[in-house]
């Protein structure tokens, strides 16, 4: 018998099927003596000692509860400290870029190099605004982006 079809037998030896072993584990946690009365859609079946609807709801809530997050990669944890929350940084950077892309010079006068440098600078500024504003590399990167354009003028 595989993990996807764990069978239990009722007192009258009638088999009851669980969708998977996780469903069985949760069902047994909330109703250890009558877990076999659950079917994959979590609706109790007619049987002596039928489990109350409240038990079904508790199991559904347990199954919907998010899993514990995976441990964060050390590099990502360190970057979040200096660069800020990625979602916040992305939001700030994208707002800067939206404004820049809607200016008259964006497509008409700026070169690819100038546009790319500006987009990179916007990302660096977003890191300053959402992360550690005293992280020297952020400021050096802003100056570096401007310098790359200056070299080509």
Describe this structure in words.
The protein is mostly helical and 153 residues long. Helices cover 58% and strands 4% of the residues. Strands 1-2 form a two-stranded antiparallel sheet.
Which SSEs are present, and which pair or pack?
Blueprint: E1 7-9, E2 15-17, H1 21-30, H2 53-64, H3 74-83, H4 86-101, H5 104-108, H6 112-130, H7 136-152
Antiparallel strand pairs: 1-2
Helix pairs in contact: 1-2, 4-6, 6-7
List keywords for this structure.
153 residues, mainly alpha, 2 domains, two-stranded antiparallel sheet, 2 strands, 58% helix, 4% strand
Order of strands in the sheet with the most strands? 1-2
Instruction: Report, as a whole number of angstroms, the end-to-end distance.
Output: 72 Å
What count of domains describes the coordinates? 2
Number of strands: 2
The mean pLDDT is 74
Morphology call: elongated
Uncertain spans: 1-10, 12-18, 31-52
Strand content: under 5%
What letter string, H or E per element, gives the SSE order?
Answer: EEHHHHHHH
Report the structural category: mainly alpha
């Amino acid at each position: 018998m595989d993990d996807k079809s764990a069978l239990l037998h009722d007192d009258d030896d009638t088999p009851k099927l669980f969708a998977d072993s996780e469903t069985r584990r949760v069902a047994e946690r909330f109703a250890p003596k009558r877990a076999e009365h659950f079917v994959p859609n979590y609706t109790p079946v007619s049987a002596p000692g039928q489990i109350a609807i409240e038990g079904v709801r508790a199991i559904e809530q347990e199954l919907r509860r998010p899993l514990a997050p995976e441990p964060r990669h050390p590099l990502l944890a360190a970057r979040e400290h200096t660069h800020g929350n990625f979602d916040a940084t992305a939001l700030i950077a994208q707002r800067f870029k939206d404004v820049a892309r809607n200016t008259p010079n964006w497509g008409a006068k700026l070169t690819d190099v100038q546009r790319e440098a500006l987009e990179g600078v916007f990302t660096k500024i977003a890191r300053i605004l959402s992360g550690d504003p005293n992280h020297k590399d952020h400021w050096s990167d802003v100056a570096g982006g401007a310098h790359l354009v200056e070299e080509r003028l």
